[in-house]
Amino acid sequence: MSKSSPSPLSRGGKLLIAMVIIAAAGAVIWSQLPRGGYSTDLSVIGQGRPALVLAYDQVYVGGTEVMDHMNRVRASYADRMEFVVADMGTAEGRNFVQRHEVRDGAVLLFDADGVRQGTINQPRSPEELQRAIDGALSGSMPGR
């Protein structure tokens, strides 16, 4: 009786399956990363420029949708204000969100001195976000 060794095809098949699993895991991890390349450095609030801060929790959809709105309006305001994400997956982000009593998808707007000018909960469109930013920058945002 002779022992048969694994055929190259079966090794190749196992390798292919392993590569597919690794690629799928990478895709899942990639999809969970915040979109738009936003800073999570909350220390910029009150440092001489107005700041927009998004409360973001990767577990929920609201913050991701608002981040898409931010991506559409950021170019119009990037030279006048900071765009920052309070990542609720970090201790600093969780503390920030708890201190300001907001949830995923909330946008907080601060003036150059770090005084909160207003909050908008999950703006539904880039235009709604843009109106809130314009109001905060002019000092006339409702709900101050």
Summarize the model shown:
It is built from four helices and four strands; from the N terminus they run H-E-H-E-H-E-E-H. By secondary structure, the chain is an alpha+beta fold. The protein is elongated and about 70 Å long.
Descriptive account of the structure:
- The longest helix has 25 residues, at 8-32.
- 27% of the residues are buried.
- Helix 2 crosses helix 4 (126-138).
- The protein has four helices and four strands; from the N terminus they run H-E-H-E-H-E-E-H.
- It is of the alpha+beta class.
- A four-stranded mixed sheet has the order 2-1-3-4.
- A hairpin with a 5-residue loop joins strand 3 (106-110) and strand 4.
- It is 44% helix and 16% strand.
Using brief descriptors, characterize the structure shown:
144 residues, alpha+beta, four-stranded mixed sheet, 4 strands
